[in-house]
């Protein structure tokens, strides 16, 4: 049987996605932090390449005294910022390489946070053990079964708790990974193709996978997990931001969104700080 092509769209299972992500993020952790660390900030909560910061948006509400889980924490920059805001925070990630970066950054900044290694579709936490969960592009775009991830987060959240995550905007699936207007704005792939983008090594082993869900799929996954969808943010490209991040950049960003941020909540006990829709306060967030 011949090997799959070096890259392309294939159906993947949970094990393939997990193994590929371990390989990819372990191998690239140091490069990822070297390339993006300055933009992220050592102790700052950046939701996306548009530079949206939690210090400005407050999508998680008041975090002081709350137990917060950061999923796919990478270098744990967000977890570190949450700690400075008075949260009890745990950072979790699949990749030992990323967690090693997080530990080194913790030692360098003097802001250390508890870190656990695990898979977001099988969270190593008890039922109803966290007040809030968050993720900035961690895990959601990489797991084979993101509906299972939603159910896992719903399981560990206490009633009334929020789950806020940013991920690649589903529209981006149709476009090439280029930030410029000429090539980056040509539709070349079907929005409806749910097979995972996968790269294979010479032996046919998957070494990178990225998955796609349409907007409707995401809503059904969230509602299917028993969560309530509170808001969906589609950040506009900020005036004056010239930095590019892969296909994210000012030229393409002037036309289409590349990030989506889903604000969800587990129904139950009312929280003292109700979520206020952001559109009126932040015109950049459509
Ligand atoms: C794009 S990085 C984002 C890291 C960090 N949140 C940031 O903003 O820099 C994606 C992260 O998700 C992690 N990840 C991928 N699949 C995962 C899974 N199944 N469970 C937990 N983490 C996962 C990767 O190891 C990586 O650290």
From TrEMBL:
Chain positions covered by the region annotation Disordered: 266-286
Protein name in the entry: Class I SAM-dependent methyltransferase
Single biological process term from Gene Ontology: methylation
Upper lineage: Bacteria, Bacillati, Actinomycetota, Actinomycetes, Frankiales
One GO MF term attached to the UniProt entry: methyltransferase activity
Top-level taxon of the source organism: Bacteria
InterPro entries, per database record: Methyltransf_11 (IPR013216), Methyltransf_Superfamily (IPR050508), SAM-dependent_MTases_sf (IPR029063)
Species this chain originates from: Frankia umida
Keywords: Methyltransferase, Transferase
């Amino acid at each position: 049987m011949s090997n799959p092509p070096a890259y392309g769209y294939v159906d993947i299972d949970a094990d393939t996605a997990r193994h590929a992500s371990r390989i990819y993020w372990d191998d690239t952790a140091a490069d990822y932090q070297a390339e993006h660390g300055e933009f992220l900030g050592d102790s700052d909560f950046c939701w996306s390449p548009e530079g949206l910061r939690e210090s400005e948006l407050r999508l998680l509400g008041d975090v002081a005294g709350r137990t917060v889980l950061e999923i796919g924490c990478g270098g744990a920059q967000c977890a570190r910022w949450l700690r400075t805001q008075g949260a009890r925070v745990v950072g979790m990630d699949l990749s030992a390489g990323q967690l090693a970066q997080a530990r080194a950054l913790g030692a360098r900044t003097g802001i250390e946070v508890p870190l656990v290694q695990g898979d977001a579709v099988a969270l190593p936490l008890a039922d109803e053990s966290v007040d809030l969960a968050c993720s900035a592009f961690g895990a959601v775009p990489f797991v084979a079964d993101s509906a299972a991830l939603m159910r896992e987060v719903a399981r560990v959240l206490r009633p009334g708790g929020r789950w806020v995550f940013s991920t690649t905007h589903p529209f981006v699936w149709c476009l090439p990974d280029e930030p410029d207007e000429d090539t980056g704005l040509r539709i070349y792939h079907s929005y409806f193709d749910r097979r995972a983008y996968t790269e294979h090594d010479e032996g046919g082993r998957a070494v990178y996978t990225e998955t796609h869900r349409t907007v409707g799929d995401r809503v059904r996954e969230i509602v299917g997990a028993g969560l309530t969808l509170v808001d969906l943010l589609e950040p506009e490209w900020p005036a004056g931001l010239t930095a590019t991040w892969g296909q994210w950049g000012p030229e393409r960003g002037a036309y289409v969104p590349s990030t989506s941020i889903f604000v969800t909540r587990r129904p139950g006990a009312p929280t003292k700080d109700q979520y206020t829709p952001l559109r009126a306060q932040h015109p950049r967030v459509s």
